[in-house]
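Record pair follows.
FIRST:
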Amino acid sequence: MSLPAIERKALFKAQVTRDRTTLESAAKEVCGVTWYHLNEGLEGRRAIAAEVKEKFAHYIGYSAEYVFGSNADASAA
């Protein structure tokens, strides 16, 4: 099981709001990618590296396995 894309994005946006930053800044500083790249990956339209998945999940307070399911170490979202 994994979180639906809409929940992943909602959790990220909530943390961005708590941190008083922007989606673009958080994506770059936390995950090392642009918000566009991250958003495309969260929607399943673009591959996300396992390292980015780990950083994303940690930022929102969960494990990569919980957020992305058993394919958390795979490159596709």
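SECOND:
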Amino acid sequence: MLAQLELLRQSPRWTVSREQVKKLETDELLIGLRWQASDELVSIPMGFAPFGTMPVTRRAPYVCVATWPGGHENQHQHRRKTRAGVVDFLDARLPDPLTKEEFDALWDASTQRTDELLGELGDHASYYRSVAFRLSVDAARAATF
């Protein structure tokens, strides 16, 4: 995993960083990723991996990175706030027009289910807004960045 991150660091379009998260005390390695999607926009990728250190909502059978390559396409629908120059999956245009009530119901159901899944382990979704990967203490010791 660290070798893959080192490869990304060689590209001028990728930034790999150690992250610290308020209210989360850990010796594990928290990795943030940024991808220069265009001259104007930086995308915040999500990481997925088959590691016990990853939040349960980000566990997958293989290591992968997913990112939103578009612009602020949801800003005129229901996105509550955007960040200038930064995009993520919440900026994706929704396929079907939803009323505010429909959007709010989907958002609330998604948030509730995420809280249920993470809450069993005392984890919280807010810890991972800037974290793509949560790796082991051994990885933290071995990382050169």
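COMMENT: The mean pLDDT is 91.
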